User: Fold this.
Amino acid sequence: MENISILEISLKLYKQLHSLNLKIPKQDRYTIWQKIENELLKFIEHISSCSHIQKVQRQGELEKASKHLNTIRILLIISREIKIIDNKNYLNIELLINQIGKMLGGWIKNTKNT
Assistant:
């Protein structure tokens, strides 16, 4: 149940990032912005695979997902600082990322305890 919520919010985040694509300057769209989208797609891949693997293997997938989420955070901070995205869009995206991060952290903690 928990992974469905993470997946739904992650897909919402991807849609939001994708909708900003044409607003991103061309020089950044194919570099840092593409990297952000790729990292998010990798994150989604790891999260979705967790529902199809045994609990023993799930810990590794969740840790990989966490690394991708942290990379996304850093790249978005850079994007805001160099004014690729404005503060309003950054805050909306960061809100979703924080929500995902809390859910992921809880899932990792729960997996470690079982």
Q: What stands out?
A: Residues 2-113 form a domain with the de novo design (two linked rop proteins) fold (CATH 1.20.1440.60). The mean pLDDT is 93. Residues 55-81 form the longest helix (27 residues).
